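Re: beginner question about structure tokens

> Can someone show what the tokenized structure looks like for a real chain? I only ever see the sequence side.

Sure, here's an example I had lying around. Input first:
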Amino acid sequence: MRAYIFTGGAVDAVALHERPAAGDLTVAADSGWNNAELLGVTPRILLGDFDSIGKDKLPDAEEILQVPAEKDRTDTQLAVDLALSRGADDFVLIGGLSGRLDHTLSNLAVLRYLAQRGCHAVMTDGFNRVRFVQNSGALIARSTFTYLSLLADGDVAKGVTVDGCKYPLKNAKLTRNCQWAISNEITGNCALVEVRKGALFIVESK
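And the corresponding structure tokens:
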């Protein structure tokens, strides 16, 4: 089952084409409700401590789950866990890539968390789109995003191959301390990115 998790942060509503279909689970994490509204989506579930969206007049969601403000996990992490508990294994996270840097880094870690549970996941705000792969690969279709960058997650990523781009790679090694696979460009209909050993964040940017 696919789940759409709407989080806070700025989004480019014009560039965002991802929309839930009938049967998809839709969850707003606190002020992520506002981003959902920008996209013309009414999430089925609203979850959070509501410090961002405000507690005085909550939206009319089918299900509202309020959590304490003092907690160990962020609203986004709780929304993802809720979707997992309801059977989701394919995730689209909207927002979460701008604003507070600590939240952005925490949200990127959610992609790793989901991949390690065998889930497919992508996070996008219209300005950027991010995937996480570990000992595997991904096919990236050419789109309105200009740049394709690979960031090693971990000390080293080995056997990195990139086909279909301006700067191809073959069995390359990327390290956390020397992130040089930045600002590539897809030249064909799609790019194939593979990492034999290790993990990568695949980032598409405008």
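Each token stands for a local structural state, so reading them left to right follows the chain. The chain has two domains: 2-126, 132-205.
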